[in-house]
Every structure is written in C-alpha cells, then in structure tokens.
C-alpha cells in the first residue's frame, strides 16, 4: 500500500523554487515563464521518484505589496494513498506558494 | 489510456464555480479574517456540489484563492501529469472592486 511522502515532495519543490526565483526580483515580464518553470521542474522531479501517482501542481507568484492572499483546497479521494503538500517561499520582492496534489493510480 | 464511462462535465462544473463564487463574494469587500474563512467554506461547498453531480470513478481536487486587489501583479499557474484522455479541470475567476477569487477543480479518473 503506497503512502504519499509529503516531506520528500516538500524538499523537491523547495529546491525547484529556489533554482527559478532564487535571487530574482519580481518582474512582470518574466513571471509567466517562472511559474511555468517551477511547475514543470517540480513535475519532472516528482515523476523521477518512480511512484504510480498522477500529479497536480499549482504555483502562485505574487508581488509583495502588502495585499492579502488566501488559498484553500478540498479533495475527494482515497485518504490512505493520496496526499498533498504546500510550500511557501518568499524573498524581498515576491511571495510564492506551490501546492502538490498526488492521486494514486491503481494498477 | 482509460476511457471513462461518463466524461467529466467541465461546463457544468464551471457553472457551479460561477454560482458559488458569485453568491459568496458579490459586493463583499476584502477583509482578512472573513476571506480566510470564506476561502475554506467555498472549497468545501464546491467539492460537495461537484460530488452531487455523481460522476462515477473520478477523484476531485478543489483549489480556491481569494486575494486583495491592490496595484500588485501576480501570476497563478498549474501543470498536471495525468491521462489527458480521461482527466481534466475546470476553472473560474471572479472579480469585484476590492477582491479577486480563483477556483479550480481538477478531476482525475481512477479505473
């Protein structure tokens, strides 16, 4: 019986965010390719774990201007095998939130 | 590739999202404590209504965001590793003068 390893996913995603946003300042022209890169890199690394899961990865990057943002999720799935993890990251000029949802494939 | 008996009704779910976001947030000003509770309620309500559609063999993930409208810029994106023949998503954005809300429903088929 497979269990989703949230800690493993957390460190994978954190590394992807660091490598894409690391030292950058918020840039509206680049944010589109940044979110795409974070999400695609995260997916690639998650797949390399070789587990039979389908993955949904969402990423929000926001300029730090004092505005508030709230995020929630609700899932209808198999709680014994499926799981989620959220990574929050920030630097001086922007916030980034990445969610990973993993849904087990039954073979 | 797995072919589901009944396809996930993307348009019907979009109507649910529009309905739920509209009824909770129309004319509502952005308020941190209120929005924090509302974002959770909205996710739960959407999940319940999608379940009521009784689409067999689909697992559901609902993600909601509510944010304040300042002069800031932001980008929200997602990618999925799944079977595009059977899996899909539905999305809706709501805006008023003080806040924006995004609701996404991802549907994953399980044999």
From TrEMBL, chain A:
Location of this chain's protein in the cell: Chromosome, Centromere, Kinetochore; Cytoplasm, Cytoskeleton; Nucleus
InterPro entries, per the entry: Tctex-1-like, Tctex-1-like_sf
Keywords for the protein's UniProt record, in alphabetical order: Cell cycle, Cell division, Centromere, Chromosome, Cytoplasm, Cytoskeleton, Dynein, Kinetochore, Microtubule, Mitosis, Motor protein, Nitration, Nucleus, Transport
Any one Gene Ontology molecular-function term assigned to this protein's record: dynein intermediate chain binding
GO cellular component: cytoplasm; cytoplasmic dynein complex; kinetochore; microtubule; nucleus
Residues in coiled coil: none
Subunit structure: Homodimer. The cytoplasmic dynein 1 complex consists of two catalytic heavy chains (HCs) and a number of non-catalytic subunits presented by intermediate chains (ICs), light intermediate chains (LICs) and light chains (LCs); the composition seems to vary in respect to the IC, LIC and LC composition. The heavy chain homodimer serves as a scaffold for the probable homodimeric assembly of the respective non-catalytic subunits. The ICs and LICs bind directly to the HC dimer and the LCs assemble on the IC dimer. DYNLT1 and DYNLT3 compete for association with dynein IC (DYNC1I1 or DYNC1I2).
Family: Belongs to the dynein light chain Tctex-type family.
Principal location class: nucleus
Protein's job: Acts as one of several non-catalytic accessory components of the cytoplasmic dynein 1 complex that are thought to be involved in linking dynein to cargos and to adapter proteins that regulate dynein function. Cytoplasmic dynein 1 acts as a motor for the intracellular retrograde motility of vesicles and organelles along microtubules. Probably binds BUB3 as part of transport cargo. Required for the efficient progression through mitosis.
Protein name: Dynein light chain Tctex-type 1
Pfam family of the protein (one): Tctex-1
GO biological process assignments: cell division; microtubule-based movement
From TrEMBL, chain B:
Domain of life: Eukaryota
GO biological process: microtubule-based movement
InterPro entries: Tctex-1-like, Tctex-1-like_sf
One Pfam assignment: Tctex-1
Gene3D superfamilies xrefs: Tctex-1
Family according to the record: Belongs to the dynein light chain Tctex-type family.
Name used for this protein in its record: Tctex1 domain-containing protein 1-A
